[in-house]
Give the backbone structure.
Amino acid sequence: MKHQAARVVLIGLSAATVVLLAMAPVAHALSVQVTTVQASLEGPSDAQLLPFRPRLRRLVGYRAFRVIRVESRPCIWRTQEAFVIPGGRLLHVLPKGMREQAVVMQVQLLEGLRSLVDTDVRLQNRGVMLFGVDPERGPADGVLIIMLKAEE
Amino acid sequence: MTCAEAEQLLDSFVDAELPGSMLLEVARHAGSCPACDQAVREMTTLRESVERVVRRQVEGVDLSGVWPAVERRIGRSGTRGVWRHVPRQLPVWGAVAALAAGALLWLRTPQPETVRVTHARPNQAVIERLVSSEGARVGIMKDRKYGTTLIMVSAPGEDTGQ
């Protein structure tokens, strides 16, 4: 009888823990989305990028944009997350906090072990900022664009 | 046609992707609107400069190293490792301990810093600090209309850039 009661308590505790863990990302997470886009001179553009096409065109000068990878996940405040970028690169995102309706974060773009750019930015909540990476072999290969979106 | 309507069509206008009647309408509007005319000129200049750089790049392409590089890649792809040993069972108490540790972590998860409300522009990003690697060229561009910020990185390989 005593043994059975202990088992019930144990199961209850485990269930409560699972619920707490399930709630954790919802309660404290910042949602970060990293979309990698290949920009090129010719060809079709993906429909999901049509709203961004005018600004992408104005900023990088290319006219065709294809999504090659999308990764979206919750990030915990003051905890670094690594997003894989095609071409052996990584985007490290470290959300630090909210200031003036903007997400303050450290973003680091790495190529292998080499840090290409390390920056602290304040991005408007639900806003998008871009990183462009020139191809190693010159502009004929197009440009890799990394779209970073953060939403509290 | 209003400026707002024309603005949506300027990209396609510059690329001549619009049907004839629309092309004509945008051209008429740009002819009488200095701001849209300026936008068309800027986009045309940007497009031409990109095309010029690409053309120069393509003309100087040396293809002699292509096949050796492809062969090296093919050789490498065959040696990739595979997952072999995946644990199939976890001890119950281990799982419970992990859950308890997770709950403890959750309770100690840091909260965001101060929140202050002021007006904001969509997509506006403020660069507070920027460090680039040695040999990398970094440029910051901003779209006037949407406020979108682009950090452009041009990084030659380590063997050539240092």
Observations:
- Chain B is about 50% helix and 10% strand.
